[in-house]
Amino acid sequence: MTYESPAVLDAGPSDGVDPDEFVRAAMRWHFDPATGSRYWLDRAERLAFDPRRDVKGVADLSLLPDLTDELRHVPVADLIPRGYGSDARLINVFDSGGTTGAPKRVVQLDDWMRHSTEQVDRRLREHGLPLGAQWLTVAPTGPHLVGDVLQRAAASLGGPGLSIDMDPRWVKKLVAAGRSDEVESYTDHLVEQCRRILLTQEVGVLAATTPLLERFAREDDLLERINGSVRAILWGGTHMDPDTRHLLATEVFPDVPLIGMYGNTMMLTALLERPGLDASQPCIFDPVSPYVFLSVVDPATGERVEVGERGQVIVSHVSKSMLIPNNAERDTAVRVRPAGDHAGDAVADVAPVATVKGETVIEGVY
Amino acid sequence: MTVVKADGPVYLDALGPNGPYRTRVPSSVTDVSGTEVARLSLVPPVYVDRALAVLRKAEAVPTAGMDTLLEAAAEEFATGTIGGLGVREYEHLVSRTSGSPLTVVRTATRDTARFVSLARASADRGRPRGAARDSGDPALGSGHAVWARRGEVFAVNASGNHPGVHRLWLEALTLGYRVAVRPSRREPFTPHRLVGALHRAGVREDQLVLLPTDRQAAGALIRGADRAVVYGGDDLVARYAHDARVLPQGPGRTKILVTADTEWREYLDTIVDSVADEGGTACVNATAVLVEGDPAPLAEAVADRLSRLPGLPPQDTRAVLPVCPLDRARALDSYLQKVAAGTRAWLGGDGIVDDLGDGSAVLRPAVHQVDHAGAPQLRAELPFPCVWIAPWNRSDGIAPLRETLVLSFLSRDHALLDTLLAEPTIANVYAGDRPTHWMAPGVPHDSYLSDFLMRSKAVVGFE
């Protein structure tokens, strides 16, 4: 059977619901034995507080622990809230990239897919993306969320989506093994596939990862073609430092708007760069109330840093279908006040956490 | 002398094909005590790729007038104000960041200027007798060869152990290569000054660039060039061993061999200088001394001399020993004690760290005696005066002398000299009273660089 959920929990991104009210409803849903998932109900028994009573709004999400490591082995069926009953429409199981070990898994149900598509669609329209234009997306597909988000974005703007798949895990393995020549060959292979599409098809929107865009900068024929016909470039999947962003925007693709996308598997969607900023200003990503809340904290103390300061990014995803609170990302960013009535922080200049590798002190003379 | 820039921090911009380029958040360059002394712009890979593309399209520095140009650049380097830094300020910063004694840096300034002014002639010394410089040579008509480049763009992934590292790539520029230099992040001042001096003297910005980067973008630089030289340890040498486009410059493992027919006491100055001059940080400083007979007296004499060297901050004009951050000094010390286990310590056995109290420390010399010529310690090269003294017997053969950048040969045994000259893994042999760190324009350091950059191309029919 299916349980009735409070109307607020079915709200779309345009419905303007109160984020605190939404969070309270989500707590009641995920922690009610009748409606919560097996995973969360089991886990709740070991919490030192009652989420239904103690989480009164967005700010109290910080009470919940970061349990994302457990998503490496939880059976995905255990993640689906019981309240959906036999009506649960599981569309995808997505994996994280597995940079820090075994991949973490999340489920995407039909209702969340609609909300996510709608919010991405709205943001892209705010950026003035052309409707009905053909897309080329070069991104990880398969178990990876980003390719799916881009394909749905293309479809929602009425554009046919051509795509090239990439396997980020294989590339990371090659990099870790120091096989840089093979990384190069694989990248050449991707560029070659893109070339076939770019030179024979009319591409209006190009969506690609940062390394691919950097790689395009070495191909004069592709640059001419992209600057001549592409009307927007979406970048995402990895970070882009401010200098690279500025160079790409002003020198490599001077005639095409460059729009950043920040998302990951645990967020279960993507955030689009705040419109209206040029390449010399920081690239800001706003959260999406009432589903995705960000906070920027001091990694040592867990305390929120001041606005304008850099810290570690903490992401909470709250929806009817999934609850992934307080995921400590491997990103740092500058804390910014969010636009509009979004709750929590916005983030600027997202960058990877500086990896503290035990650098070998002894390197001989050099 | 204290150098304080009143007008804010020193900025070391990238010197790209379209002029200086400053990144949004330049990274800090700190001195040996950890104090920020400059800000260095590390360019991203996309900048490297685009700069290399411009270099590839640019023409070579014309041969005509090259010597005049180089002389002007040498003069600028030695005396000019470049990037806002006079030569004294420059030398102070190099000394404070690399930890090299100021006198070593000052000598390096003069020597580098001399190498710069003679770079064309120096490179030409490496030209094979059968190869003409260009197609205008009348000898070509009878069937001959022309000396030709193997590529267009040369990249240098430099080290920061000694300012002299930057003398080598000048030759590539004179051979018509366009050159991209990636400075060491520890000591970027010398290449910044040298590239600036050459630009002022007339080398165009699309012929020579300075591209400071992080390690990841360094990969883009090496990959994007036709030929590259990289400096580093054994791991780096192994990584590039099979890449014909890359010339790795690894540890020197410079050695001295004293045979029984030679009284070493007459050469003690040369031996000690070989170990400790230049602060003992160069690949041409002696790492090992092999002695036919009892090595103990020599070890004792060397230790005695080295023990008298004063421990001073690098910018002190009396300083002769290298300085580095205190935590690195301690790490080097514990590494040394581990490596030296089982040897007889004549100097440095109770530690080599001389804490200067400001976050930095002098690295004091170390002298250890090992009990046979095959001891693994002879391969341990450390960035301060640190020498391993070993007995050597005729029965050891030349195996212990292999893999050596400079071998100083204190002996009258000509047959042995010939054997050493024939040994492929010994790069240079200096016979007689000549310290291992001796260098001169036109004399190869590790073969002529042109062996790697040029080829002889048969040309017939040019009348």
Automatic annotation (TrEMBL), chain A:
Q: What Gene3D superfamilies would the database entry show?
A: N-terminal domain of ligase-like
Record-linked InterPro entries: ANL_N_sf
For this protein, the record's SUPFAM superfamilies field holds: Acetyl-CoA synthetase-like (SSF56801)
- What is the protein name for this chain? Phenylacetate-coenzyme A ligase PaaK-like adenylate-forming protein
Gene source species = Streptomyces umbrinus
Automatic annotation (TrEMBL), chain B:
Q: Which residues form the Aldehyde dehydrogenase domain?
A: 169-382
A Pfam cross-reference name: Aldedh
Keyword check for Oxidoreductase: yes
The family database entries (SUPFAM superfamilies) matched by this protein are listed as: ALDH-like
Record-linked InterPro entries: Ald_DH/histidinol_DH, Ald_DH_C, Ald_DH_N, Aldehyde_DH_dom
In terms of domain of life, where is this protein from? Bacteria
Keywords on record:
Oxidoreductase
Q: Does the keyword Oxidoreductase apply?
A: yes
Mind telling me what this protein is named? Acyl-CoA reductase-like NAD-dependent aldehyde dehydrogenase
Tell me which species this is from: Streptomyces umbrinus
